[in-house]
Design goal:
The protein is of the alpha/beta class. It is built from eleven helices and seven strands. Strands 3-2-1-4-5-7-6 form a seven-stranded mixed beta sheet, sandwiched between helices. The two termini are about 30 Å apart. The model has no long low-confidence stretch (mean pLDDT about 95).
Length: about 270
């Protein structure tokens, strides 16, 4: 996006009712077990990579603490969990769940007292929201101990949905909130240039981008608008169809439009 939004614009871009701030409350009880199962397999992978038994974990952009709660349930009980969140109400909900939470803009807040503190940091669907991705990766590097692990999840310019909807309707454009987008080569290079060793690069399931893309396409057609109201991530039938497409994509070993890179601080 040009020009990049200023610091002052963030409260407008992310109002108090931004959907990610209360996912824990609005998530369908039918969809939740499937999403939690997917996330739990990632937690096991983190546990294999993190070297310290009493590890400190930081979720950058923790929203209402949904992911921290999953790590608490499926990860080692000795881990100490913390979060950082821009939205004040969401940060308060995460704190009420018992996590250490700081409220503020990750890009501009002072984290000097957290230097070299964490063994695992999560940047899940955050880097695309930053106004300065390189500085954000550098900051994540600073809060990790030597040998600490960074998990980055972000949209990738790939996948069947990207190729079908890229001209206008692709859900991962998410204008005006996604400022920068990457592919695996550019993001891997950025991480390596900022002091990380890439451990793994893989596509992960991306049903949500399919759902948002189709909803955008339908909403732009008069006949499709009534249907678009039902095309959302809490509709189990819609989620099932989108997930089936993603599973077929996975079986055929094709990239998705959702990328995860795990990297270690060197």
């Amino acid at each position: 996006i040009q020009p990049r939004p200023t610091d002052a614009a963030m409260s407008t871009i992310y109002p108090s009712n931004y959907y990610a701030y209360n996912e824990g409350e609005t998530e369908s009880p039918i969809v939740k077990p499937f999403r939690d199962r997917v996330e739990s397999t990632k937690v096991k992978r983190y546990a294999d990579l993190v070297e310290r038994r009493e590890a400190h974990v930081l979720d950058i952009g923790c929203a209402d603490g949904r992911l921290l709660e999953i790590i608490q349930r499926f990860g080692p009980r000795t881990w100490k969990l913390a979060g950082l969140e821009l939205g004040e109400a969401a940060a308060q909900r995460a704190a009420e769940r018992g996590f250490e939470v700081r409220t503020g803009d990750f890009e501009s807040m002072d984290l000097d007292d957290w230097t070299d503190r964490f063994d695992l940091a999560l940047l899940h669907h955050v880097i695309e929201h930053t106004r300065a991705p390189r500085a954000s990766i550098r900051k994540a590097h600073s809060v990790l101990r030597r040998g600490g692990v960074l998990s980055v999840e972000t949209p990738e310019l790939a996948g069947w949905d990207y190729h079908l909807f890229q001209r206008r309707y692709w859900g991962a454009w998410h204008i005006p909130r996604h400022f920068y987008l990457f592919d695996r080569d550019t993001l891997s290079r950025l991480l390596e240039e900022e002091g990380f060793e890439v451990v793994s690069v893989k596509s992960i399931l991306s049903p949500a981008f399919w759902i948002h893309s189709v909803s955008n396409w339908l909403s732009d057609r008069r006949w499709g608008r009534p249907v678009a109201r039902y095309v959302h991530t809490q509709n189990l039938l819609v989620v099932g169809i989108a997930t089936s497409i993603e599973l077929l994509r996975h079986i055929l070993n094709r990239p998705s439009s959702n990328l995860q890179i795990l990297a270690r601080k060197v």
